[in-house]
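Appendix B.2, paired examples.
Example (i):
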Amino acid sequence: MNSMTSGMTGGVTTRVIEMRQPGGPAMLQLADRQIAAPGPGEVLLRQHAAGVNFVDIYHRTGLYPLPVWPAVPGIDGAGVVAAIGAEVEDVAPGDRVAWMGQPVGGYAEWRLLPAAKLVKLPQDIATDVAAAAMTRGITAHMLLCHVYPVGPGSTVLVHAAAGGLGLILTQWAKRLGATVIGTVGSPAKGELARRHGIDHALLYRDRDFVTDLRALTDGAGVDYVIDGIGGDTLRRSLDCVRPFGMVASIGQAGGPIAPLDVFEIGPRRSLTFARPSVMAYAGNPHLYGRATRAVLAELQAGLRIEIGARYPLAAAAAAQCALEAGSTTGSILLEM
């Protein structure tokens, strides 16, 4: 523990990763901040780990603007409750908890959070696993249970199937009874996806994934495509879906998304198109509660979380660069 506390009733001095303005990875700088004691409804959390997500990169670059600068990025984490403010009843000092969503600020050793955002962890779920699972698990619940209810007989295409979200989506969709096809960037990533239950792994760098998917489905296409790649991949995904199926666009790891003409969706293809936000999903208290309970239940039922890389807090820039480059598999953590 690198921070020096000034007493739980008087707040703490904490190390954080701070961004003074939007820009490249060099904007991520280690800094010290003072945090006040928790007020009514607040909790002081000693974080043990925080996830590194593409949303963090979008915040850093300004694609998704943050309301206040300088800013501390990070939309999830897990740790131990150190102190509570007045009117907090559901958690107590010493509880292990996880969180996801607003207010951002996960790249920090200590932070204040509304008690309502905290999820108490069962004894059989490790703190680092919870940190790696929160954003991706809630995203999977949103995509598989809310945006398009997946069930027995569903066929799903998951892009970047060996990534942190892809591996969770694959396992969860398989438990729901779906056939899952995924795109991967290498044979090694394909093998990782297969170990997590995927039915078919398509090497998108070596072959045309649209042609291969059409062959796998006897020309019919899948019911549902989940695309976090963006760029040219999104338009090609439209050709992977059966008539009256759905495409969900959830990011742009592969580059900006050009404007999409509504006539590309229908009437010829007759598709449903979704652009859901996990931040908006987590911002709805009812949906957040449902999603977090479901994520914990899936973890206890055997959902495996692949932690592909761990970085110290001070190496946040390197962690984001690795995520942007696509050189990692599974989830990436910052450890405090």
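Example (ii):
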Amino acid sequence: MAVAEKAAQKQAQPKETTNPYESMIQRFDVAAKIIGLDEETYNILKTPQRQYVVSLPVAMDNGKVQVFEGYRIIHNTSRGPSKGGIRYALEVNQDEVKALAAWMTWKCAIADIPYGGAKGGITVDASKLSLGELERLTRAYTRAMVDVFGVDKDIPAPDVATGPREMAWIVDEFSRMQGSFQPGVVTGKPLHLGGSEGRVEATGRGVNTAALEAMRQMRLDPRKATAAVQGFGNVGSISAKYMEDAGLRIVAISDHTGAFSNSKGISIGDAIKYRNANNGVLKGFTGGKLISNEELLALDVDVLAPCALENQIRQANAADVKAQLIVEGANGPTTAGADKILQEKGIIVVPDILANGGGVTVSYMEWTQNRFGYYYAEDEINKRADRSMSRAFENVWAVGKKYKVSMRIAAYIFALEKVAKAVQSRGHY
């Protein structure tokens, strides 16, 4: 571990935590100490600007009214309107949303996009709701947030258990309440409502670009490399497909129903077809041997891509990781307590706030297309996104070399310096 990072970590004294906000703050503290961030700016960036918690009464199909809790947290808007997804999950809570909002601030800064960070969510198991209940819940959330959302204020997007359908409902409800059609209020919309070409694939494509850039620096030939991908939703499956197309042999994949390994390689196209025909899950997949998700994380592969949920690599299992390279497709898949172990093992980690930035990059393009009324072809979107991801990687890699720190701390340093300048330039009152 680098001297500067060791000293800062010793002062911060990070302890193992599975609280995503505390985990974010531990990395933030290390980076802030290394660059000597002043106390005023530190306090501003440590705390979200605004936090909204709302109760959402929804008429259920059985005639009863159920009340759900919804959140929207704006972390920072110094560099532009806030941007961040909306997730529907039982695990959604205020600390998780605070962390995700802060990560969006850093992610947008690293991608050099003029946005701040935000995140939203509803504590709900969306799989238990009917289509009508889901729509009524989404519209209720939109009505509760009508003064928060806005094309120039706060722009949501899909996240866990949300997608183009939910974004279309938000556009419709928000537009009704504003009295005019405003497609730019969200991104990740269906193409026929102002969505962008390439948006569905954007995050997974960016994860692959980040992986290939890291492999180039490590002198790893993709055509001779193996990979394991945890998570087989939009991000995981598309990351795996792009990696396979680049020549990597994908020897393991997983979702919440099980993990599957095959040393000869798994056909990702076949796995995607199976998942799509099997209610969206991999359960029963015959293209590999059934293993656990913990076993997948410990496989002897060149590249490990955790693309599921937070806190997958922890102090308890970090020593078992054998991959040379970890590329974080998910938000917060590695705890702060695990970072030190991975560094001591010499494992390079491309952090989430860099690796999964392809999604917000294309979201920004969607937003600008909505504002200008001019839409790019898919190949143009992909070229722009690939260039942006490669540039972001190069910037963070250079910061890592300059300060002799891990890529994660380098990413935080790069983002903090950029956001801090915006805060300081705008002044305090």
